[in-house]
Amino acid sequence: MTGSVIHGGWGFPPLLTFVVPNRLCTNYTTFNKPNFKPFGQQKSAPLTISCLSDKALTTSCLSDKAVTTAASDHNYGNKQVISVTPRIYDYLLTNVREPTILRELREETATMRGSQMQVSPDQAQLLAMLVQILGAKRCIEVGVYTGYSSLAVALVLPDSGILVACERDNNSLEVAKKYYERAGVSHKVDARHGLAVDTLNSMLENGEGCSYDFAFVDAEKRMYQEYFELLLKLVRPGGVIVIDNVLWHGKVADPLVDDKKTESIRSFNRALMDDMRVSISMIPVGDGMTICHKR
Ligand SMILES: C[S@@+](CC[C@H](N)C(=O)[O-])C[C@H]1O[C@@H](n2cnc3c(N)ncnc32)[C@H](O)[C@@H]1O
């Protein structure tokens, strides 16, 4: 199974192993099979659960039926926080309204190299909803791949809207363009092949500063701070920038992990905490996303 697996190791023997839900997790393993069943018709994946433990948390991992993590620290009011098991995530996916064209794109992408990079249907649904709530007309995506998240956004943009879609890999961008065409949204997507930093800089040189409503970042992790600074210039006050993979398969929370990508996302997350140019909300959807609202 692809996905992040965290083993317990906090003072008691690991009874179980909990598979951290992210876009690499069970459903994507299922999706990667050409004949996967639609959401809600999948058999539950065999479940291994590991009880995580640290100072602030007590975890009750009884079975897949009831897995909750309760903060025992008074500062968190003993709040019960759900740990999403494969079964719960399957259930969540049965409650995602995925347009047929997105499902078809997901199925085609599942046969391709790098399919685990695609955002999950629940993430795409959230991005689309943010765009709708904002009433966004001008959007940017950094990191298109085969176009799942960009298509989800383009589908909800008004006819006069535009999404600048930045991608360095032409092969995957061609797949995305095919689906924009099939979905009847190509007139709303300005697909830019090349390095995203170059595209964003050229947009600024073109006088497009503060003219965008929404941006989504899902590309090179070590460039996050640079993308963010450029997007802050391109997005208007009141606009939204969403950053993907901020939990980085849970590695950011593991002090023993110090590879360059993890360190770089950690330092980006730290910098965002102190960045008063935006209000922020980090949410554990997919591989973790931070929603930044420009002040
Ligand atoms: C995680 S995938 C994007 C997934 C996409 N949002 C989706 O839902 O399918 C990241 C993409 O960013 C692209 N990428 C990485 N670095 C880039 C760069 N410097 N400029 C443009 N695209 C880049 C990669 O080629 C890859 O297709």
UniProtKB/TrEMBL annotation:
GO biological process, any? methylation
The record ties this protein, via InterPro entries, to: Cation-dep_OMT, SAM-dependent_MTases_sf, SAM_O-MeTrfase
Q: Which keywords does this chain's UniProt record carry?
A: Lignin biosynthesis, Methyltransferase, S-adenosyl-L-methionine, Transferase
Q: Is Transport included in the keywords of this UniProt record?
A: no
Answer yes or no on keyword Methyltransferase: yes
Q: GO MF annotations for this entry?
A: O-methyltransferase activity; S-adenosylmethionine-dependent methyltransferase activity
Q: Which ranges does the record mark as transmembrane?
A: none
Pfam families the record matches = Methyltransf_3
Family of this protein: Belongs to the class I-like SAM-binding methyltransferase superfamily. Cation-dependent O-methyltransferase family.
Name it. Caffeoyl-CoA O-methyltransferase
